[in-house]
Amino acid sequence: MSEELNKSEEKNLETESRWYVVHTYSGYENKVKANIEKIIENRGMEDQIHQVIVPLQDCVEIKNGQKKNVQRKVFPGYVLLKMFMNDDTWYVVRNTRGVTSFVGPGSKPVPLTDEEVRAMGIGDTVEELDIEIGDTIEVKNGPFAEAVGQVDEINEHKRTVIVKLSIFGRETPVELDFNQIEKL
Q1: Which of 6-10, 50-54, 70-74, 121-125 tops mean pLDDT?
Q2: CA–CA distance from 98 to each of 29, 31, 34, 76, 110 (Å)?
Q3: Least confident piece of the model among 21-25, 110-114, 154-158
Q4: What's the CA gap between 39 and 106, in Å, rounded?
């Protein structure tokens, strides 16, 4: 009876992408994210690995008497992935430079539960971005907060846009997350 349950659980995991946690070397979270996204793009695995996230939170840091808004990693040393778990995806992620292991007993990755995903605020909230190339936007947060620029590229998979901002009198392309911008 328990074998039948395990088989039905496995089939459910095969038909539904889930959130998994990967442990990385400290300070390599963004590099691991970039490497996995590049592999996804190069191997055409967009249909198997859907999202790669390094959760960040906005903090106010006071240095030399000045307040500064900074973004800190919520889970240092970890990267979250929404993906179908199979031999190919496991191999690709596990063998990415900077990845030490999946979170789970032994070498068996354990997906996050729906409650854990909701508690982290990373659930299936799909942001509809009503921005097109050429639109004017304002940066809401980060080092370029309150800067105004024009959208040059949109990457739905990475959930980023390339915006041309005027920095020191020159138009400079800057990559920003969807949640950092607002249409004017």
Answers
A1: 50-54
A2: 8, 8, 11, 13, 20
A3: 154-158
A4: 25
Residue type (1 letter), 91: Y
How many of the other CB atoms lie within 10 Å of CB of 108? Answer: 9
Closest CA to 50 of 19, 13, 75, 24: 19
Six token digits for residue 50: 């859907």
Q: What's the residue count for the chain?
A: 184
Scanning the structure block, which residue is given the tokens 């179908």? 84
What is the residue whose two structure tokens read 């390339």? Answer: 162
CB 132, CB 152: distance < 8 Å: no
Hey, what are 20's tokens?
């998994």
**Helix count (H) and strand count (E) of the chain?**
4, 11
Cα 177 from chain centre: 9
The tokens for 146 are: 């309150």
Query: What are the C-alpha distances in Å from 7 to residues 3, 88, 90, 97, 106?
Result: 6, 20, 19, 32, 20
Q: In what order do the strands lie in the sheet with 18-24?
A: 49-53, 78-83, 18-24, 99-102
